[in-house]
Amino acid sequence: MPRPRRKSKTTPAQKAKVKKVMEEWETGRLHSGSKKGPIVRSQKQAIAIALSQSGQSRRRKKKR
């Protein structure tokens, strides 16, 4: 019997933040660090920045 799928815990605000950051990357306006930092060229780095800014990159600890 297959396991039931878990619901994603991403909120609409988190999804919107990821979308906004990825749109910045597509148009070439995403910078690493501050706005004076170098422009991000790598899609993997853009995804990492998006997850970090939306708060999805933090590991969740299981409660005992």
Q: How would you characterize this protein structure?
A:
This protein has 2 helices and no strands. The chain is an all-alpha fold and 64 residues long. The chain has a domain at 12-27 and 40-54. The radius of gyration is 15 Å and the shape is elongated. Helices cover 44% and strands 0% of the residues.
Structural class: mainly alpha
Major β-sheet profile: none
The radius of gyration is: 15 Å
Q: Give unreliable regions as ranges.
A: none
**Average pLDDT over all residues:** 89
Share of helical residues? 40-55%
Oligomer status? single chain
Estimate the strand proportion: under 5%
What gap, in angstroms, lies between the N and C termini? Answer: 27 Å
What pattern of helices and strands is seen along the backbone?
HH
> What is the tally of helical segments?
2
What is the count of β-strands?
0
Shape: elongated
Short account of what is shown:
The protein has about 60 residues and is mainly alpha-helical.
List the helices and strands and how they pair.
Elements: H1 12-27, H2 43-54
Helix pairs in contact: 1-2
Main traits of this protein?
single chain, 64 residues, mainly alpha, 2 helices, 44% helix, elongated
